[in-house]
């Protein structure tokens, strides 16, 4: 007995000998390790069901884009299904116009692009062959060939990333159908789906999660709408610059810039380099340098004017946070990760701020309130139907056989 007491006292004295900072650091460490393991397990699960996750995330972004159209028709007194059909029709028509413009313009203006590219490449090698750095044209050509071979051998990893994209026609069709069905049901019944998900949580967490989720959803919607505006400005600026400089295919260039701008920084750099390369192939190095200057100018206007004034006020994520989010998303999940990184960061920022500021009423259970209002609405509809049936019955009785 005495031996046990002495060992406990020794243990207590050993713990007291540790500085407070070490004990705090140890407490933080094991908790962070558990959080990291849980996050790693969650990411592993997402990768396993990526064929469901990616279409669902795309549907969420499209819902945030099209929901204001549906809500506007609903406020005007139109049936909700009419607003959903109109929103889907507008979206499908817009996509069809963009694809048609790209295909028709490329088919008519890109016939000799490969031949011209080879000519420019050999002219460049001849120019470099006499450089003072001791590099020959054969060495540079061999280096580029090896680089292209390396890219081709790893193109699946570069394109897919951890999440990956559809690799077969069946997966592509499945993803498109899942995106379409998810989009339709979210537009029709998004509120009920949200409260159904909340119902799986403890009642005490309903108010906090509901407030955080709503603010996160607002940030996602603002991001999508503002990003469309920013992409449109980039596309018009670079497309008009290409047309004024006489660069071929200005419309496909503008459309590609518009699509690429949805991946911040990386998309604008890639599509801008493509525009400069087309100018180099068709119009020479001077025209290509001017086109590159136009691309840099448009990107500077976006980065220093549109992003801080428009995107910054809507998303409220620091530009450094955007860069880190896009880089991390691309590293972990390839192109899908780069596409979803900023909206996820914007939603996460709003969710954390809401939870820190405690912007909710703990005395109100939003799930119970929703079900109560829904039940009241259903009862009112039943009463209205009953009253209508009774009125029809009385009318038929009064108009009985004459």
Uncertain runs = none
- Largest sheet, strands/sense/barrel: none
Estimate percent helicity: over 70%
Order of helices and strands: HHHHHHHHHHHHHH
Total individual domains: 3
User: Quick check: average pLDDT?
Assistant: 78
Please tell me about this protein's structure.
The mean pLDDT is 78. The chain has 402 residues and is mostly helical. The longest helix is centred in the middle third of the chain and has 39 residues, at 206-244. It is 85% helix and 0% strand.
List keywords for this structure.
402 residues; mainly alpha
In short:
With 402 residues, the chain is an all-alpha fold.
Secondary-structure blueprint:
Elements: H1 2-17, H2 20-48, H3 50-75, H4 80-109, H5 113-129, H6 137-153, H7 155-160, H8 169-198, H9 206-244, H10 250-260, H11 266-283, H12 285-315, H13 319-357, H14 366-398
């Amino acid at each position: 007995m005495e031996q046990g007491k002495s060992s406990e006292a020794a243990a207590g004295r050993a713990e007291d000998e540790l500085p407070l900072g070490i004990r705090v650091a140890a407490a933080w460490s094991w908790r962070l390790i558990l959080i990291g393991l849980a996050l790693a397990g969650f990411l592993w699960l997402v990768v396993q069901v990526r064929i469901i996750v990616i279409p669902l995330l795309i549907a969420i972004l499209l819902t945030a884009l099209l929901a204001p159209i549906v809500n506007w028709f609903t406020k005007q007194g139109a049936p909700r299904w009419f607003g959903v059909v109109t929103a889907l029709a507008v979206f499908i028509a817009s996509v069809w116009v963009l694809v048609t413009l790209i295909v028709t313009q490329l088919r008519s203006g890109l016939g000799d692009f490969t031949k011209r590219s080879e000519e420019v490449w050999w002219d460049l090698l001849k120019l470099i062959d006499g450089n003072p750095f001791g590099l020959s044209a054969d060495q540079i050509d061999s280096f580029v060939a090896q680089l292209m071979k390396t890219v081709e051998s790893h193109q699946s990893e570069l394109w897919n990333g951890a999440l990956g994209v559809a690799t077969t026609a069946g997966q592509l069709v499945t993803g498109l159908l899942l995106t379409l069905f998810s989009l339709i049901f979210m537009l029709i019944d998004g509120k009920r789906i949200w409260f159904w998900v909340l119902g799986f949580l403890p009642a005490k967490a309903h108010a906090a999660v509901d407030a955080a989720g709503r603010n996160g959803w607002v940030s996602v919607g603002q991001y999508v709408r503002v990003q469309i505006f920013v992409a449109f400005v980039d596309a018009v600026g670079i497309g008009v610059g290409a047309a004024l400089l006489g660069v071929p295919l200005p419309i496909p260039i503008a459309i590609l810039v518009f699509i690429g701008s949805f991946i911040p920084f990386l998309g604008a750099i890639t599509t801008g380099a493509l525009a400069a390369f087309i100018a180099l192939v068709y119009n020479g190095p001077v025209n290509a340098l001017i086109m590159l200057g136009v691309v840099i100018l448009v990107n500077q206007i976006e980065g220093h004017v549109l992003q801080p004034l428009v995107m910054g006020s809507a998303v409220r994520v620091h530009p450094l946070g955007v860069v880190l989010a896009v880089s991390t998303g691309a590293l972990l999940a390839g192109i899908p990760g780069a596409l979803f990184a900023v909206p996820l960061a914007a939603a996460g920022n709003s969710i954390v701020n809401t939870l820190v500021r405690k912007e909710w009423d703990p005395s109100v259970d939003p799930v119970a309130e929703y079900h109560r209002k829904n039940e009241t609405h259903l009862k009112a509809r039943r009463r209205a139907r009953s009253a209508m049936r009774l009125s029809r019955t009385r009318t038929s009785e009064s108009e009985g056989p004459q």
